[in-house]
Write a structure and sequence with these properties.
single chain, mainly beta, four-stranded antiparallel sheet
């Protein structure tokens, strides 16, 4: 299905993504179209939050901008809110900030 059959309030950032981004607050109980399928939202989705583009199985990687941002901690249905209750970051810390190592020029 083409993205044109998806509610315009849900934005697909790149074709590889399995999540959509809410361009407006979407209230619980609202119906939205996602790639031609009518979905009733179980939870309110705030502006900028992620929504499952399709059903995802537990531990499946979540892609945004074509990059892995984390994995789901449980199976989720199409249209489910993806957030801290069911999405765990796969980011690893790459640096630490230590003010004691600041460079001083004389």
């Amino acid at each position: 299905m083409s993205s044109s059959s998806t509610d315009p309030r849900l934005i697909l950032l790149t074709p590889q993504d399995n999540c959509l981004i809410a361009a407006a607050r979407l209230d619980a109980g609202s119906e939205v179209m996602i790639e031609g399928e009518r979905v009733t939202l179980a939870k309110t989705i705030d502006l900028g939050h992620k929504v499952a583009r399709r059903a995802l199985v537990q531990d499946e990687k979540v892609l945004r901008y074509g990059a892995v941002i984390g994995h789901v901690t449980e199976a989720v249905a199409r249209g489910a809110h993806l957030h801290t209750h069911n999405l765990e970051s796969d980011y690893l810390p790459t640096y630490t900030h230590d003010a004691g190592h600041a460079f001083v020029h004389h």
